[in-house]
Here is the input.
Amino acid sequence: ETGVTQTPRHLVMGMTNKKSLKCEQHLGHNAMYWYKQSAKKPLELMFVYSLEERVENNSVPSRFSPECPNSSHLFLHLHTLQPEDSALYLCASSQEEFGGSPSEAFFGQGTRLTVV
Amino acid sequence: KNEVEQSPQNLTAQEGEFITINCSYSVGISALHWLQQHPGGGIVSLFMLSSGKKKHGRLIATINIQEKHSSLHITASHPRDSAVYICAVLNYGGATNKLIFGTGTLLAVQP
Here is the structure.
């Protein structure tokens, strides 16, 4: 148990469906992240929220829509996905101290998404 | 070319062997993580280091900032060590730090 919880663990959805991934952390961290892990590729950063504000979006398609209602919760809303979006989606959190020491990231278990 | 390179990509070892996984990076960093990912996806942070050496149980991580290189060593390896080991560097700059990941090393320890 790392303190970062993701639900659901597995999700199968059709290309016309709308679904959401949820991430929750109770570590008191002020930054949360969505990563995508595709087969045989490094993890790719999708979104960063720091102090509940989105500070980085690495040119992710608009069919992925993040939401961070508070510092403990992060969502990834999915709509009209493509089969190539099938991947493991990982949430992480950290305590960012700008100008301070580097911070350790804590990861959730991931959501295995299959788009059919 | 990836900014973070790991070697080997795949490694098979016999139980009890000493294992080394290497990581080289080409960007400026404030720290480096070694992560372990078991089948099923969950990722656990093993070490975060920015200089020298850290030890935890049978795991040892070293980093050479000048050479932009880190190694993860496993002593007396065991089948339960079988996992993907990922090197990730914390790249400073911008509004927040971000992790850049290697492609991982798949380790299989056979009994």
